[in-house]
Amino acid sequence: MKRKDESCTLDVHPTEKALVVHYEVEATILGELGEAMIGERKECQKIIRLKSLNAHTDTSSLARKVVEECRLIHPSKLREVEQLLFYLQKRKDSNDNQEKKRISPRDFTPYAGVELDEEASINRIDEYVELLYEDVQEKIRGATLIFQLARNPDNLEELIQNEAALGALARVLREDWKQSVDLATTITYIFFCFSSFSQFHGLVTHFKIGALCMNIIEHELKRYDLWQDELGEDKFSDNQNLKKEHEKSLRKYQSLLIKQEQLLRVALCLLLNLAEDTRTELKMRNKNIVHMLVKILDREDEELLLVVVSFLKKLSIFLENKNDMAETLAVEKLARLLPCEHEELQSTTLRLLLNLSFDTSLRSQMVQAALVPKLSSLLADEAQRQLSMCILYHISMDDRFKSMFADTDCIPQLMRMVFDCGEEKMDVELISLCINLAANKSDAQVICEGNGLKMLMKRALKLKDVLVMKMIRNLSQHNGPTKSLFLDHVGDLAAQITEDEAEEFVIECLGTLANLTIPDLDWALVLKEYKLVPYLKDRLKPGSAEDDLILEVVIMIGTVSVDDSCAAMLAKSGIIPALIELLNAQQEDDEFVCQIVYVFYQMVFHKATRDVIVKETQAPAYLIDLMHDNNAEIRKVCNNTLDIIAEYDEEWGKKIQTEKFRWYNGQWLEMVENRQMDEGEPFLFGEDAESFIGNGEILERPDLFYSPDGIISADGALSPDFYTDFQSGELGQTGFMNRYGAPCLPGPGSKSTVSFAFCPALIFWDANIS
């Protein structure tokens, strides 16, 4: 027989630090005279694992060593090997790949008690199967030898063909797992090796190994609880004999615990592999897998905890599993794992917490478990920084928890990271967290400590950084010492309000200026020096810019209108008609309407602008229309503005009074208008049958305030006798007062026996009542 290796091709392993050598083997059987009789070609591959490869490895030296030791690689491929090694050195390993590597079959080694001196051979598999029919010790020996074979992936294809061996293993596990933890662990290891490859999942499912593992885990957890109870009974005894017994039991318990955790680990690894199929995962959930996993979180073995947390992380993407974790207080148990020295466990725990942090109730549990200071301390670890920052960002979304950051070292660390970025682009997670924290007053004070605000302004203005300016805008909204710090930066911000700057950057600058309600700030000087009035007026035209920018312009005008000279300057420029035009265009947008009405409210405080609004525009008419808007905030600002107008202008005061009267008595007026003249109520109509209700001077008709009992006098005032009768209850069911002291009609649900033809008087609305 003649064997010939053809030329090979090289590639990198997709997940591991390894080279993959693809080559072909041609085998030829020669005849007696040396001629080729039978030939066969086969494609093969060899994996060269590079365990020593790290960031500091000399790839040139390692490449020469690989070529020297692997006969399949021709020396001419040295350069190619070196390039592949350099690529592997720079490639970042994902945490998910690390988890898979952690639970691969090659990483498991037989534990103390089942190690064998002999080496297994695939040719003796039948002998090993026969051992499974002997006593427990022989069964363990046979299973251990088969496990040696199964750890090598190259043997799995051949083992799967041996149905007798697999059937015997499944039978022994099903029948004898309670008799020996060693036996159960070893056989579970064998099936785990098959579960590491998706194509063998059908085999594992066929023998119902997954369901059996669930039963094993449940049983072992109950055993653990019994051990804990037994040890707890003798722990505090004063009897010396009992103390010695307790120490002896404790040593035995620790030995059993090591074996039990090994069994739990491999059983969970097997289930985790099978959970690749979501239907199988659902079956596990129905058998309470989440509760089991959370219960195991109390253990100390880090390798077991890694598997448990990895499993929970996979399950957490489904709502039902996430709810189960909330119910079992998983967050509280996960909190104790942070920080820890096991880097991979720490990273996986953070990833699980990140998945859970999307839920509001679970974020609350994280805060209660004191995770904010723990996560803040992990910001110093570059490997865990991004994950920690993402979780902190989710927590900072809730206003209830923002203030807790001020008591940790989180904000100083974040500020150092911001400044360390220099002119480079900042990570979105970092600036997003900073923006959220800047919205809290306590956090804002910490951010601005020292030269914090000055450094942020410098970066924002130099790089035109919109997100940093958004953070500054949040800082500017807090009253007190923080807002006063902005006095030094008003000029820099005002200088950005130009047509040349990007709109989104100008929006943030305008928003920041609009927040600066500082008494010492001379807005008139700012408007003149930076020529802002023409810009503000031009941007009020509907469609002149994005709605967000126009809205910020309106808010800015409202802020500067507090100043008398600024309000006059704006009124002379024709901004008020522009605001009315914008109000017409944006009447469906409550935010626009509310802000424009607020501008009018500010301007009516000043005589110059009040005269312009009242005498030269129809702004009061628009305000009267908005007086009964569905939005409570708009109604409130409208009423306050109209009250001021009514106080200073008699004519508009009457109109406002009449409208309030009509609105408040709308039900009564509607009823009166619907009455017919032939129903015997001529007093409601004039001699020409014209309804008084249609008369625009309705409040000038005191006869409408008369009642048959003379409760209200001819001048529309309440008689003194009315109050006496009201207090004594003599008014009966129909006589009651509204909150302004005037008599009202009975409500629609009232059981009054008095006809509406003899109802009490209308309500008179005083102009001073808002």
Describe this structure in words.
This protein has 770 residues and is mainly α. Among the domains are: 2-90, no CATH class; 124-277, Leucine-rich Repeat Variant, CATH 1.25.10; 531-667, Leucine-rich Repeat Variant (Alpha Horseshoe), CATH 1.25.10.10. 59% of the residues lie in helices and 5% in strands. The protein has 41 helices and six strands. The strands form two sheets. Strands 1, 2, 3 and 4 form a four-stranded antiparallel β-sheet that branches. A two-stranded antiparallel sheet has the order 5-6. β2 and β3 (18-30) form a beta hairpin. α34 (575-585) packs antiparallel against α35. The longest helix has 35 residues, at 240-274. The radius of gyration is 42 Å and the shape is elongated. The model is unreliable at 94-103, 682-696, 702-720 and 729-770 (pLDDT under 50).
Keyphrases for this structure?
disordered C terminus, Leucine-rich Repeat Variant, mainly alpha, 770 residues, elongated, two-stranded antiparallel sheet
Biggest pleated-sheet summary:
4 strands, antiparallel
What CATH architecture label of the domain at 124-277 applies?
A: Alpha Horseshoe
Write down the CATH topology of the domain at 124-277: Leucine-rich Repeat Variant
**CATH class (first level) name of the domain at 124-277:** Mainly Alpha
Quantity of strands, as a count: 6
Instruction: Work out the radius of gyration.
Output: 42 Å
Which term fits the overall shape? elongated
Q: List unreliable stretches of 5+ residues.
A: 94-103, 682-696, 702-720, 729-770
Briefly note the structural class of the backbone.
mainly alpha
Q: Number of helical segments? A: 41
The termini sit apart by: 109 Å
Q: Provide mean pLDDT, rounded.
A: 83
